């Protein structure tokens, strides 16, 4: 399956409004290619949702942005920073890149023996070199930002799944990222708790945070995203304005997927 001719209509690579550009990204596992020559741009302040069936390569593509997934070929441009898979980036290259990109996973990845406040402080101290008092103040600010200002002393085991995911969001925000990545952040939550997380993401979008989101929440994608990218079999099949693509998809494969999701 090949992308439709009008996908990936974006501005030039020198466009100052472009924060992230993925160019011809390929990813292979055990000699099997799972992402095929995907190119994508995300503008500053834009929310882009990646949708598609399981196994489409969405999460793998997302994880290449901060090089948690090493692409077999292609180029990542994040602001003024350029990393080519062929050039084998150095450890410093990756540290500098990851400082600009926050990521929220399906799992919460919190340290169970630390309080919410300590979980949000930890990376600030060890990765950014902030003093503990400064990190504590920022951690409290971000917990308040996600509606958990009264939960700083609680350990993750004493928080709901939705609260734990919001702690993970606060931890990422405390690192001052230019871009936030979300990999199906509500997939491990029941619908009621998932709403807490989606509402937090809505607020971030309204505040102008640049976000790239892998999601199966079609209503969220239509309401919050500026643009939706539909992937299948490791390729971009269709992309466009969120509302238009969700309500009036043009490609038969996109239509098939959305009909299946909406009929559930």
- Estimated radius of gyration: 18 Å
Mean pLDDT: 91
The N- to C-terminal Cα distance equals 25 Å
Main sheet makeup: 6 strands, mixed
- SS-based structural class? alpha/beta
Unreliable stretches (pLDDT < 50, length at least 5) are 1-13
What is the beta-strand fraction? 25-35%
Number of helices: 9
Report the strand count: 10
**Helix-strand pattern, N to C?**
EEEHEEHEHHHEHEHEEHH
Strand order of the largest sheet: 6-7-8-3-9-10
Overall morphology = globular
Helical residues, percent: 25-40%
Summarize it.
This protein is α/β, with parallel strands linked by helices. The protein is built from nine helices and ten strands. It has helices at about 60-65, 90-100, 115-125, 130-145, 160-175, 190-205, 220-225, 240-245, 250-260; strands at about 20-30, 30-45, 45-50, 75-80, 80-85, 100-105, 180-185, 210-215, 225-230, 235-240.
